[in-house]
Design goal:
The structure is a homodimer.
Chain A (H helix, E strand, L loop, with lengths): L2 H15 L3 H15 L4 H13 L7 H16 L3 E9 L2 E13 L3 E3 L1 E3 L11 E8 L2 H5 L10 E4 L10 H6 L6 H6 L4 E5 L23 E4 L1 H11 L5 E11 L3 E9 L4 E11 L9 H19 L7 E8 L7 H8 L7 E6 L7 E5 L7 H5 L5 E2 L12 H5 L6 E4 L4 H4 L12 H20 L12
Parallel strand pairs in A: 5-6, 6-7, 7-8, 11-12, 11-13, 14-15
Antiparallel strand pairs in A: 1-10, 2-3, 2-9, 4-8, 5-9, 10-12, 14-16
Helix pairs in contact in A: 2-14, 3-9, 9-14
């Protein structure tokens, strides 16, 4: 059976199974239209960025964000609001600085990567070797970077779907490869499409060996390359950091209880932890604002949909851990988890949604939002639902226009100032109407169509 | 006589006075076309941003920039290269930091303004009062801000001609007005059209009384406003700075000597000093690169134009002083200074040029560059030619598209990364052909047409 035909058959089956189908579509459309001017998402996002600010794991603000979230979910009418904790060692940033000391003194804008080793007391001063791509570094023989600071100045490609990030981000994890070749530190051009000097952090997650590792502002990486083309360049680097091995992370959730089959649950959400230079507005305050607002609008309906909608605010996306913890804590629930979706690519307009199967009425509801319904099932729905996905929970793919997302993400510029309120609301409209349709349907996304 | 008719008459007179007119236009057009692919301007800009970096007055890099400039002008074939020094007290930035301490701790991105007083040892901690416009602050009665940190969160309007800056920049100079009302410090939203967190510095130039004064990142100003709307906000502020009253500044110049009337001089240039957070690429490395490259291309011609072209790299624009020093040093020369022009609005495309009178062939030469020749004489040609203008030297108005200029200027993001090489060369093409036409003409711009 062809995939398209299979989807069509399932759609027909779903329509037959749901006598309230026409009503569902009508309600979804009304939700969509209400969401476009609703203030909930903006208010949530304004609240967390203003009252909490950056929320890196291990910080006091991270602790405050937990209490903020519980209070916020309760005040918005969610039920069964609770916190699920799990152990998660925290890397804590200290003072950081870097400068060119020869041939001419120039300060460098740079930020340590999560899990970086600190530099020894007094810092590191060493000559740099600049590579124009990560592949170039990997081509170097063992020992060839002995005593050097390895620099990779590899640009990232701007794309609508964010795929340029996937292609470039491997370079952020190059400290072990540089160390294996003898380097004493590793500096990588920020994985960003921007031109600004604000560097973009992120985690390094390799097995080691570890050395101090940091991301450079884009012009700073270019500067090192330009200076290195003229002769020897020496850089001084200071990166302080510490580890709290006993830190605790959390996933927080609240529900809009289903009216008929409350044990069938749609899981959606975003992550509440953030990197520290900005205020975590697009990564991922927006995700929690969008999905929470969408569920809240559904909760405000005179009649809840048939199934339960659960919003999860995952607590450790940037350093990993929440996906596994959530999947582990909810493994017995997997057969009842209808579908899982995450909003974690900012708040710019959604241009496409993808489902494992057809959903009656979806094209009709999405059309005024200029959202395409993909003919292909999603492959990736977000880091935090990765554990559920592995366990067999079907996933949603919701594609934000990521054209400008990587100008800002993981940098000081990730603040409320870059969020477009109308596009934020388009996101809420997509999530609210999409989730409502799923929650009021009887479709079993676990059942795989006979895909060719 | 109508202004247009007067210009037409002058144009005819100029054509009659210059038998080589057709040849001039042909040469100007050839210069224009060569400039569009010439590497000189880019190389100058790359050199100063890479080898010197930020060049604030009073810094070692500023001293280095003087030697760099002399060497560069000589190597490009300029003659009579020399340095004119003048005394200029230097304000020198120290360590700076600020944070919200209540109701919730949040770091603030901020940069001290030039000439700010330092905070007392241990810093200042005080409640803030936020005004949404500078006019709102001016409306406050004396004493009403006693013990407070006054904050003005006034946005700047984006415009092609940069006029939004003129309208907003007064707020940067509000420390005295805040002090008169009792404030202990003054924080102003950066005078910028950007959304980034990198704050934009600049000088404060008022008579006093003086208090510590700094510019906030745009999201940081919004954050203070949002927090203040919720209740009392306390901010801790540390601004260190010092003054070197015996510092020396300089204007540097070099010439392409005229073949027939070398004592008739066209003065063009940009300023070599810069603020310190970026590398001074668009403010104003670009200006010196563009005008130097334009003059160098003219100098490379088999035959120099009739008059002399002098490139001046003014040394103290950001803190004022070079315009007056230059005018004073050259006051006896004023009758022989044909015209003066400055490039100090970045390197984005030029969309208009304005002259005190018509210049035969100019429209024809500018047309392929999409540059309009204004029907109005220029009012302002750049800060550094202000002294000459006051002394009676006619000025040129060369209008860059400033739409995005104030996203970057005076901030860390003012680096080579934001310069578009093709637009930089369009600038060189405009300046080279325009200046050549003037230098090879006999027009006396001092003679005023009978403007109605």
């Amino acid at each position: 059976m062809s995939r398209k035909f299979a989807i069509a058959l399932f759609a027909v089956a779903a329509i037959l199974a749901a006598p309230s189908f026409a009503g569902s579509v009508e309600t979804a459309a009304a939700l969509r239209d209400k969401a476009l001017t609703d203030a909930t998402a903006w208010n949530i996002l304004e609240s967390i960025t203003t009252e909490i600010g950056p929320r890196p794991i291990g910080s006091p603000a991270y602790e405050r964000s937990r209490d903020w979230a519980v209070k916020k979910l309760k005040s918005l009418g969610f039920t069964d609001v609770h916190v699920e904790t799990f152990p998660k060692s925290a890397w804590i940033r200290g003072a950081e600085s870097a400068e060119v000391v020869a041939p001419v003194p120039q300060k460098l804008a740079l930020i340590g990567l999560g899990n970086s080793l600190p530099t020894p007391k007094g810092g590191i001063e060493a000559p740099v070797v600049v590579f124009n791509s990560y592949a170039e570094l990997l081509d170097q023989p063992p020992g060839s970077l002995k005593g050097k600071i390895a620099v990779v100045n590899q640009p990232m490609t701007r794309t609508q779907d964010g795929s340029g990030y996937g292609a470039a981000v491997e370079a952020r994890n190059g400290d072990a490869e540089a160390a294996k070749r003898g380097a004493v530190a590793y500096l990588v051009r920020s994985i960003s499409t921007g031109t600004g000097r604000a560097p973009h952090t992120g985690a390094t997650w390799g097995e080691g060996p570890h050395i101090p590792v940091a991301a450079l502002g884009m012009p700073d990486a270019d500067l090192l390359a330009s200076l290195a083309a003229r002769g020897t360049v020496r850089v001084r680097l200071n990166l302080a950091s510490s580890i709290n091995p006993k830190a605790v992370s959390f996933n927080i959730s609240g529900e809009i209880k289903g009216r008929e089959v409350p044990d069938e649950v749609i899981v959606i959400g975003g992550h509440i932890d953030s990197w520290d230079p900005g205020t975590g507005a697009i990564d991922d305050g927006a995700g929690i604002a969008i999905t929470t607002a969408a569920a809240k609008l559904i909760g405000d309906l005179p009649q809840h949909p048939r199934r339960t909608i659960r919003v999860v605010l995952w607590g450790s996306e940037e350093n990993g851990g929440s996906a596994q913890a959530y999947a582990e804590a909810h493994k017995t629930e997997v057969p009842k988890l209808v579908i899982a979706g995450e909003s974690d690519l900012g708040a710019d307009r959604i241009y496409q949604v993808a489902l494992p199967q057809g959903l009656p009425g979806l094209e009709e509801v999405m059309a005024p939002l200029k959202v395409i319904v993909s003919g292909e099932p999603p492959r990736h729905g977000g880091s935090d639902i990765g554990g559920l996905q592995k366990a067999g929970v079907p996933i949603l793919g919701v594609s934000n226009d990521a054209t400008r997302y990587f100008d800002y993400h993981h940098s000081a510029d990730d603040t409320l100032a870059i969020v477009n309120r109308a596009e934020l609301n388009q996101n809420v409209a997509v999530w609210a109407s999409l989730i409502y349709l799923i929650a009021d349907s009887g479709i079993d996304f676990h059942a795989k169509p006979d895909v060719k």
